[in-house]
Design goal:
- With 406 residues, this protein is an alpha/beta fold.
- The chain has 13 helices and 14 strands.
- Strands 1, 2, 3, 4, 5, 6, 7, 8, 9, 10, 11, 12, 13 and 14 form a 14-stranded parallel β-sheet that branches.
- The chain is globular.
Length: 406
């Protein structure tokens, strides 16, 4: 067949085999072929195609190993994959573009430790990974030699870094990972904590602070920081070392406490000139109530002159809802705000009363969005309620959207 048709035709056909399922792009292939899931059918088809002839193998390999997910439920999968990558005859290292690692929720492996820590040196051989996601990892007790050997995984090739529910022994170690990704376009740090028991006695690597520099802020476009040391004064000060060059478009700040309020507000002021979408999230706890009060007292949002979308997080039972008018009032008049989005835990239309609509100045909005409504909510009742209470302010020119939570 290769003599009859040009190889480009076969390459194009194999490309479309991978795209048969529109969700194939966003689904990772776990190295566990016993899994019977619809999401990995396109990959199984590619595996069959790779056996047709030698000329089909390079293209099928390119797509088969494009995305790798190493799950938490079986640590042997991650360890085995690390051994495959380290093997001298490995042929797919340069094909991996997306890598997702998830440590076990339960660390009951006596004498085995954390599998992510043990395979970091092997994963560092994947030098073309552009998208790295890590969940539940504990970078507190990783040996220094393993840590240094694994750092090349986090390099200029990484464009998207997502770390969630992780532990470090010091803030500078997290900053070091981020600093090595000098071409980041998207950074998400959610629920990152310090292990004080480990950090207090952990030896500081010689010259540790010397290698930690901020990533190229002109490239970074999306930033999500939620809870923990990601919104600490130390990390935000480092991240905003050169605020004049920041070009971040989308920012999400979550779970601001009273201790974090001042430096989070300062950080937002420093990077505000380029932001087009801002999300502010608070938790429904007594601490977060103090945090939002403190944040609203010190926040200066006058630099957000390009803001188009403003999302208010969980306005649970009157907490964040009461701050909506004051935050809107802090926006500068040149602001081009087009959409206000509320994340509400709605059981019924009357839950919208938690928002102080009387004191909210409805700007020239285009969209008013609500998400978090459960399936049982009668949307017609919600629309009627909005029309009765906010209709005149909306001037009937605003599109109302609902995003259901099932």
């Amino acid at each position: 067949m290769a003599d009859i048709f040009p190889p480009e035709i076969f390459d194009t056909i194999l490309d479309h085999v991978y795209l048969l399922d529109e969700e194939a792009k966003s689904n990772y292939y776990a190295l566990d072929c016993s899994l019977q899931r619809d999401s990995i059918k396109p990959v199984k088809t590619l595996l069959r195609c790779s056996l047709v002839c030698r000329s089909w193998l390079p293209r099928t390999r390119l797509h088969t190993f494009d995305s790798i997910y190493l799950p938490h439920y079986d640590r042997t999968i991650g360890v085995t994959f690390g051994a495959l990558v380290a093997h001298p005859l490995c042929t797919f290292r340069s094909h991996v573009r997306r890598l997702s690692l998830q440590e076990s929720y339960s660390h009951n492996f006596p004498g085995e430790g954390f599998w992510i820590n043990s395979v970091l040196p092997q994963l560092a051989l994947l030098t073309h990974v552009e998208d790295v996601s890590i969940y539940n990892a504990h970078f507190t007790n990783v040996a220094e030699e393993e840590w240094r050997a694994g750092l090349p995984l986090f390099g200029p090739q990484v464009k998207r870094l997502d770390m969630q529910s992780m532990y470090f022994d010091r803030v500078s170690r997290m900053s070091e990972l981020v600093s090595r990704c000098t071409n980041l376009e998207s950074l998400a740090l959610r629920y990152i904590f310090l292990d004080n028991d480990v950090g207090a006695g952990a030896p500081q690597a010689q010259g540790d602070d010397m290698v930690i520099t901020t990533p190229s802020s002109r490239i970074l476009q999306s930033l999500s920081l939620q809870y923990g040391i990601a919104i600490s004064a130390e990390f935000l000060t480092w991240l905003c070392a050169t605020p004049g060059s920041m070009k971040i478009l989308t920012v999400e700040l979550g779970c601001v406490s009273i201790e974090d309020a001042h430096h989070v507000a300062r950080f937002l002021y420093d990077i505000g000139q380029s932001i087009t979408s801002l999300a502010i999230d608070f938790w429904d706890t007594s601490d977060s109530k103090d945090g939002q009060d403190a944040f609203c007292r010190v926040a200066d949002l006058t630099t957000l002159t390009k803001l188009e979308t403003l999302r208010f997080g969980y306005a649970g039972r009157g907490l964040l809802a009461k701050q909506v008018p004051s935050i809107l009032a802090k926006l500068n008049s040149p602001c081009l705000l087009k959409e206000i989005r509320f994340h509400l835990m709605m059981d019924k239309a009357a839950d919208l009363e938690m928002i102080d609509w009387e004191n909210i100045v409805i700007r020239p909005l285009e969209v008013l969005s609500f998400d978090g409504a459960i399936e049982e909510v009668n949307l017609e009742e919600v629309k009627t309620w909005l029309q009765e209470h906010v209709g005149e302010r909306l001037n009937r020119n605003v599109e109302i959207r609902f995003y259901m939570l099932y």
